[in-house]
Design a protein that fits this description.
heterodimer, A: 239 residues, mainly alpha, 10 helices, elongated, B: 313 residues, alpha/beta, six-stranded mixed β-sheet, 13 strands, 36% helix
C-alpha cells in the first residue's frame, strides 16, 4: 500500500496543484507527473498480465482443440469444463484460489487463463471444422496424410476463427485483468482501485487509467486485425 | 508412370453397417487401359461407393481391386491416391490456395522440382482452357465452370494413369456442362488415360462412355458393354427401362453420316446437303422436318431415310 500524510484530501498524489486538490474533471499535470511512477508501470504490468494469460490460454486451448477435433467425443467435456470456469465470478475465483496459490500473480493468471480458455477453445474447434467436407475429402483423395490435411488445409482455413477468438480473448482479458487490483498492487486496475479508496474518488486517476485500459484493448485488437490480414490473404481476394 | 492403367474389380462386395442390402454386391468389372468407363444407375446403385473404393476412401468387405495387376490393398494408401486423379462434383478446391497452388498439390507431395511444377501448371491451365494468368487467382474469384476446369487440371497434375470422376458436371448449368463434356472427351483422346466416371444421367453416359456399367439398386451390375451394344440389346427389363424407349434414336445419335451407307448417284434430286460429322439422328430429324426422303452427304453421296432400319440391325 502506498504511504501518505493523514489530513490531506489527496494524500498520495497531491502536489498542491489546485487542479488536483480541487479534484477537477481531468488534470493533465497529474498525468504528466505520475506517468513514470504510476500509470506507465501499471500499463506495462497490465500488458504483461494480458499477454501471459492469453499466451498460456492459447498454449492450453490449442492442443485441446486439436484433440477435440481428432476425437469429437472429447469436445463436450472440455467445453463444459471451461464454460463452468466462466460462470464463476472473477472476484470469487481469486478468493477460491488464494488458499492454494496465495496472493500472487499465479492466482491472478490462473483465473485469467481460465477465462481465455472458454473463448479460445470453442473458437479453435469451430475453426478447424470450417474446412468443408468436400475440401477435406478432395485432400484425402489426392493423397495428403492426416497430418498434411491438418497443417495444409484445416489449420490455414481455421485462421480467421482462431484470430477472431484471440481478439475476443485479448479484449476481455484486458478488461478482466483490472480486477487483479483487488488482490495485487498491479495493473491498470490498481490506480483506479486506489483512487476509489480516497474519501472523494480522484477523478483524473480513474479516467486516465480507464482510458489507458480501453486504449490498450483497442490497440491489441487492431494489431490482431492486422495479423488476420497477414494470415488470411485469400479473404482479401474474394470480390 | 504408365500412360493408362487397367482396372479390375474382382468380386468386390461392400455392406454398410445397419443396412440389409449391399451397397456393392459381388461386382466384377474389367476396365481395359485407356477406356472411358461410365458407372451409371439410379441412386442406391452403389456407383459412387464403387468409385471411392478404388482410391480407398471407402473400404470394402471382400473381393479385390487391381490396378495394372496390383492389389490396391497392398500399396500404401497415400501412394495409391497420389497416383490417381480425383474429381468430385463439389470440386473441393482449397479456398485458401491460389489456382496454381491447388494444381501443384500432388506434384509437391511427390517432391517435384519447382520449375517442373510451374511448367506443368501452365501446361495444364492451357489444356483445360484457362489462362496462365489464372494461376494467381483464388477459387472464389472463378465461375463454377472455371472451378471445375481447375479441379480437372489439379487431378491431372501429376499425370496419373487413372482418373476417378464423381458426377463432375452435376452442379453446372446445362450450357457449361455440355461444353465441359465435349472438352473432356477431347482431352481423353489427347491424354489417353483410363477414366472411371460416375453419373446418374444416362444421356451423359451414352455420350461420354467407351463402356458403360449399369448398376441397379443393391449394387448389382445389370449390364456392362459399349453404349451401342447396350442400346441395341438391353440385358433385361431394368436396363431397357433405364435407357428409355427411344433407344433406337439414341443409337442413331452415336453414329454420324460419315459411317452410313450411301448411293453415289442422282444428287441433283436431293435438295439438302449435310456434313459427314452430322449425327444420323439429326439428319433424320431434318429429313422429317423438310419432308425429304434423302439427304446429300458432303463428299460421299446420297443417304436415304429408307436405309435407317438397316443401320440398326
Amino acid at each position: 500500500m502506498m504511504g501518505g500524510g493523514g489530513g490531506v484530501v489527496i494524500p498520495s498524489f497531491g502536489h498542491g496543484d489546485s487542479c488536483v486538490t480541487g479534484d477537477h474533471a481531468f488534470c493533465w499535470g497529474w498525468v504528466r507527473d505520475h506517468w513514470g511512477d504510476t500509470l506507465g508501470p501499471a500499463l506495462w504490468q497490465h500488458v504483461e498480465l494480458t499477454l501471459i494469460a492469453v499466451g498460456i490460454g492459447f498454449a492450453i486451448a490449442f492442443p485441446l482443440a486439436l484433440l477435440a477435433h481428432r476425437f469429437p467425443r472429447l469436445e463436450q467435456p472440455f467445453g463444459a469444463f471451461s464454460a463452468l470456469v466462466y460462470t464463476i465470478p472473477s472476484l470469487a475465483l481469486f478468493q477460491l484460489l488464494v488458499p492454494f496459490t496465495g496472493i500472487t500473480w499465479t492466482t491472478v493468471e490462473i483465473a485469467l487463463v481460465g477465462y481465455t480458455l472458454v473463448i479460445l477453445f470453442p473458437n479453435i474447434v469451430a475453426g478447424l471444422r470450417s474446412a468443408s467436407a468436400d475440401v477435406v475429402e478432395a485432400a484425402h483423395g489426392m493423397g495428403l496424410t492426416r497430418v498434411q490435411v491438418l497443417t495444409r488445409i484445416e489449420l490455414p482455413l481455421a485462421m480467421p476463427a482462431i484470430v477472431g477468438g484471440l481478439r475476443i480473448a485479448v479484449v476481455s482479458t484486458v478488461a478482466i485483468a483490472t480486477i487483479a487490483a483487488t488482490l495485487l498492487p498491479d495493473g491498470l486496475g490498481y490506480p483506479i482501485f486506489l483512487a476509489l479508496k480516497e474519501p472523494t474518488p480522484f477523478k483524473t486517476e480513474i479516467y486516465s487509467a480507464g482510458v489507458l485500459a480501453v486504449a490498450l484493448a483497442i490497440g491489441c485488437d487492431l494489431l490482431l486485425v492486422g495479423l488476420r490480414r497477414l494470415v488470411v490473404p485469400w479473404a482479401r481476394a474474394s470480390a | 508412370m504408365s500412360q493408362a492403367a487397367e482396372i479390375v474389380f474382382d468380386h468386390v462386395t461392400k455392406r454398410y453397417a445397419g443396412r440389409d442390402a449391399a451397397a456393392v454386391d459381388d461386382l466384377s468389372l474389367e476396365i481395359p487401359a485407356g477406356t472411358f468407363c461410365i458407372l451409371v444407375g439410379p441412386s442406391g446403385g452403389g456407383k459412387t461407393t464403387a468409385l471411392k473404393m478404388v482410391n480407398r476412401l471407402i473400404p470394402f468387405d471382400s473381393g479385390e481391386i487391381r490396378i495394372d495387376g496390383r492389389d490396391i490393398q497392398s500399396m500404401p494408401v497415400t501412394e495409391l491416391r497420389r497416383g490417381i486423379g480425383y474429381v468430385i462434383q463439389q470440386i473441393g478446391l482449397f479456398p485458401h490456395m491460389t489456382v496454381g497452388d491447388n494444381i501443384a498439390t500432388v506434384p509437391r507431395l511427390l517432391g517435384w522440382a519447382k520449375q517442373r511444377t510451374r511448367d506443368r501448371c501452365v501446361e495444364l491451365l492451357e489444356l483445360v482452357g484457362l489462362e496462365a494468368a489464372d494461376a494467381d487467382r483464388y477459387p472464389s474469384q472463378l465461375s463454377g465452370g472455371q472451378r471445375q476446369r481447375v479441379g480437372l487440371a489439379r487431378a491431372l497434375a501429376a499425370d496419373p494413369p487413372l482418373l476417378l470422376m464423381d458426377e463432375p458436371f452435376g452442379a453446372l448449368d446445362p450450357i457449361t456442362r455440355v461444353r465441359l463434356q465435349t472438352e473432356l472427351k477431347r482431352l481423353h483422346r489427347e491424354v489417353g488415360k483410363t477414366v472411371i466416371f460416375v453419373t446418374h444421367d444416362i444421356d451423359e453416359a451414352i455420350q461420354m462412355g467407351d463402356r458403360i456399367a449399369i448398376l441397379r439398386e443393391g449394387g448389382v451390375l445389370a449390364q456392362y458393354d459399349t453404349p451401342d451394344a447396350i442400346l441395341a440389346g438391353p440385358a433385361d427389363a431394368f436396363v431397357a427401362a433405364f435407357i428409355g424407349e427411344d433407344r433406337a434414336l439414341r443409337r442413331l445419335a452415336l453414329r454420324t453420316l460419315a459411317e452410313v451407307p450411301v448411293e453415289v448417284s442422282d444428287t441433283s434430286k436431293v435438295s439438302d446437303t449435310l456434313r459427314p460429322e452430322t449425327t444420323v439422328r439429326n439428319a433424320i430429324s431434318l429429313m422429317l422436318e423438310s419432308g425429304a426422303d434423302a439427304v446429300n452427304v458432303e463428299g460421299r453421296g446420297v443417304f436415304r431415310l429408307a436405309d435407317v432400319q438397316e443401320l440398326l440391325r
